[in-house]
Amino acid sequence: MTVLLLIAAGGFAGLTGALLGIGGGVVLVPLLVVGFDLPLEEAVPASLMCVVASSCAAAASYVDNRLSDIRLGLSLELATVLGAISGGLVAAYLAPAMVAVVFGFFTLYVALQILLVRSRGQELVGAAYTPTNYPLGLSGSFVAGGLSALLGVGGGPLKVPLMSYGMRVPFKVATATSNLMIGVTGAASVASYAWRGHVKLSLVSPLVVGVLAGACFGSQLMPRVPTSVLKKLFAIVLLVVAVQMFWKGGEGLWPSMLK
């Protein structure tokens, strides 16, 4: 039964990750921590492995359909990988409860960004565009890589709004390009966890099965679904996740702060 639940969790994470370009880690980490009562030391590297799988499944479809901006993705990925390596090294010195609280603030930010930031009407995939503000894109990608290593989210929740609102890239192109990049980011992030022996194949294997299926379906569905509907529904999920992670992190932080 646990294996089936893990496959289902992976499928949901892969579906939402492919639809929104976030790799699924922003969903999978709280699911594993809250739903399966796993420590963050195990949930984060498992999520990163699933981010790699989700990227492989979704990016192939988006590149084939010419939704991904390959040139932009390659330009931003170098900074992202450097940030991921740095974040992976820092993660060894952080308390799990503190990381949970950081994750809560992060998911809260993403949810509010989705709900409050209005689109500029630049949603047509075939519309001509020119990415702007590369310094912002490179520095933001470095931060996204660090968050990927610390939180197991692949950096997508930051890179999608960064490209869409900061670099004036159409949202669906930003989503597809993020899916292209997060696999490399996740692989760079998970390396330090694997070195310390925190990647458990018995946990990762059923998750990857579900993620691959969900990401394949999501990549076919994304071009046909209005992004405004998807973003609002997902923002509600993220708000619930933020509350759960604040509670989980608070259980470990508040007693130690009161001593």
Keyword list:
single chain; mainly alpha; about 0% strand; globular
Strand-pairing-aware structural class: mainly alpha
Strand content: under 5%
How many structural units, i.e. domains? 1
How would you spell out the order of helices and strands? Answer: HHHHHHHHHH
- How many alpha or pi helices? 10
| Oligomeric grouping of the chains | single chain
Low-pLDDT stretches are none
- Report on the biggest sheet: none
Helix share, percent: over 70%
Termini separation: 41 Å
Based on DSSP secondary structure assignment, what is the total number of beta strands? 0
Gyration radius, in Å? 17 Å
Shape: globular
- The pLDDT mean sits at 78
